[in-house]
Each structure stands twice: as C-alpha cells, then as structure tokens.
Design a protein that fits this description.
Blueprint (H helix, E strand, L loop, with lengths): L15 E3 L4 E5 L12 E5 L4 E4 L6 H11 L4 E5 L10 H9 L3 E3 L28 E2 L5 E3 L4 E6 L8 E5 L4 E5 L17 H14 L3 E4 L8 H24 L5 H8 L8 H17 L3 E4 L7 E4 L1
C-alpha cells in the first residue's frame, strides 16, 4: 500500500491558525529538511489552555505564542519528546505563564546502552527536565478538554502522543508525519518499539492525527498501516542487499534513498542502522563488530 503523503502544506510563521473549536496552531520560523515548514505548536482549549510542543529556543516564536494565548491561563505545557525543535522553549514559556512542564521524562529515558550517540540537525535537548513525569494512560484535564498521555517509543525512547478525547484527535509529535516518514535514530530510536507504537494507534482508530510538523492526517488507520508496510519493505530491502553481498550502511543508503535530499543521508543511515539493530536482535543478522554505522553486516 503506497503512502499518500501531503507535500503541499503552506503556513506563515507567527500566524495564529484556528484548526477546530478547541485547537489553535502557531508555526515557528525553523524550516529545514528535518522540520519541513517548521514546528507547529498547538494550543488546546478556550479558557484554561494546554500548550503542546512549545518548540525551539526562539523568543520570536515565544512572543507569537504569548500573543495567541492573550490573557488566558496556561495550565499545562506538554512535550511529546526531547528534540531541540520540540522541547527547549518549554522553559521560556514556563517562566512567563507559571504552567508546569509535563512529559514522559528527560532525554534518553529507556535508551538501550552501548550504541553511538546522535548527530542530526534536530538533536537532543539534554537539558530538558519536566516538572511532572507522565505515565502511559495518564489523563490531564481542562474545563473543556481531556487529554490522555500515550507512551509511544520509537522515534525517541521518551516519545509521547496526546489524545484529545473531545475531538478524537491525537497529537502525534514526530511519531507520524503526513509529509514524510519518521526517522528512527539509534541509540534512542528503536524500530521494533516504533512499529508496536504504530499498531497501538491503529487499534485506537482515531478520527484525526495532528503531527508537530506539516498537515494533519485525516485517514489515520489507513495511513499508519501504509507506514508499517513501508517499514517492512525497507527491512526486506536491507536483507536483499545483504544477500547480494552489500555489507555496509553507506552503500545501502546510496541505493535505497536515491530520491531524498542528500542532506538527509546521515539520518537515513541511522534509520538503516535501526533496522539492522532489530535484525541483529532477532538473530537474523551478524554485525562485525557490534552494530554501528561503520560495522560490517552479514546474514546469520
């Protein structure tokens, strides 16, 4: 099943965009190959507000958020995960609103040990520390909204999605994006955990997904099933390359990602690494030495 990407999304930074009776979005001016048109910060509620993914450490974006908030109270600041395009402005926003920051935990919570660190543009916010650590299934309420926190590891080990009950909408952070596939970056990213998290959201069958970057996903179950199929196809490609004697990640990336912006090759390499780690864990592949970007791989 092909993935029906939406790649014609346009929006101007700083503009307050009303999306539904309960949801408003403000776009940060941080476009890039990783963030698409930029980070979309969501404001939920009409009286007391929840802010989801405040965004990068850019005061100009903070001022745009404060203008959108106006004289209303912010009761919760929710963070899907700790990449620098999502979480850093939470501290700035807390100082100005007094609202607590809620998230699954600091960067690396649940990370497997022994693999190389991250080196991508939207890297880790290692200074992030939530005021409240959310558990999977925990419910946060405002006067006119109810949000359930869902631990969805995969893109990062501490990734959370937030389900808005009143509109059957899930704010999915980087777990699902309508414009491109999600990058899985070891050591914090995990392909098997990612697929399990996707299956969980498919089973929920929500009406709508709102990613932090780009447009909404209006046929979520179908779209996520296509992503799952795509990931399985990538894994089959990797196994095919190993069968053909291609034993290193760089050569695989050159063959598998010819259509993407070359600036994304380092992230693509880590995505291939994530699949290879899973195959090693499954006992189907052997790495020499331990799994990493420079290792050589062969079928077991």
């Amino acid at each position: 099943m092909p993935i029906d990407f939406k790649q014609d999304f346009t929006m101007n930074p700083g503009v307050v965009e009303g999306l539904s009776p309960l949801v408003t979005r403000v776009l940060a001016p941080n476009p890039s190959p990783f963030t698409y048109t930029g980070t979309g910060t969501f404001i939920v509620g009409t009286e007391k507000l929840a802010v989801i993914d405040p965004g990068p450490d850019m005061p100009v974006h903070g001022e745009a958020l404060m203008k959108a908030i106006g004289d209303r109270e912010v009761s919760h600041i929710l963070v899907t995960h700790t990449h620098r395009d999502h979480s850093p402005l939470s501290r700035w926003l807390k100082e100005r609103t007094g609202a607590p920051i809620l998230a699954f935990g600091p960067h690396g919570a649940g990370r497997r040990a022994g693999l190389e660190g991250e080196d991508v543009e939207a890297g880790a916010d290692k200074d992030f520390a939530p005021d409240v650590r959310l558990a999977d299934g925990e419910v946060i309420k405002g006067p006119d909204w109810t949000i359930t926190a869902l631990h969805t590891p995969g893109h990062t080990s501490n990734h959370m999605c937030f389900h808005l009950s009143e509109e059957d909408t899930i704010f999915v952070g980087d777990h699902v994006m309508a414009w491109a596939t999600t990058v899985i970056l070891p050591p914090d990213g995990d392909v098997r955990a990612y697929l399990t998290s996707l299956e969980r959201l498919v089973a929920m069958n929500p009406a709508l997904l709102r990613p932090t970057h780009g447009p909404e996903v209006d046929k979520p179950a179908r779209f996520m099933r296509a992503i799952i199929g795509h990931r399985r196809m990538r894994e089959a490609q990797i196994v095919g390359h190993l069968e053909a004697g291609i034993d290193n990640i760089d050569m695989m990336v050159e063959r598998m990602y010819r259509e993407i912006d070359p600036r994304l090759f380092p992230a693509a390499a880590r995505s291939v690494l994530a699949h290879l780690i899973a195959l090693v864990d499954d006992g189907r592949v052997i790495a020499d030495p331990a799994p990493g970007l420079e290792a050589r791989y062969r079928l077991s």
